[in-house]
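Worked example 3 (structure in, sequence out).
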């Protein structure tokens, strides 16, 4: 929490990594209108899946 108080809602924690702490971020990043392809780490639960971890837009029905 302290880093968000100091730097704001979006904090770069590595050369390719951001940490976002904002109430609207979840819908923007993983909501039904998100246009990006989810990263391979979303397959961590494979073969069990859920809509949250589904990478295939056709399968997620969003």
């Amino acid at each position: 929490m302290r880093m968000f108080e100091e730097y704001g809602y979006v904090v770069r924690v590595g050369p390719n990594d951001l940490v976002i702490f904002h109430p609207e971020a979840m819908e923007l990043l993983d909501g039904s209108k998100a246009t990006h392809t989810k990263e391979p780490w979303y397959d961590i639960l494979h073969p069990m899946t859920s809509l949250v971890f589904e990478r295939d837009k056709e399968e997620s029905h969003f």
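Notes: The two ends are 32 Å apart (CA to CA). The longest strand covers residues 10-14.
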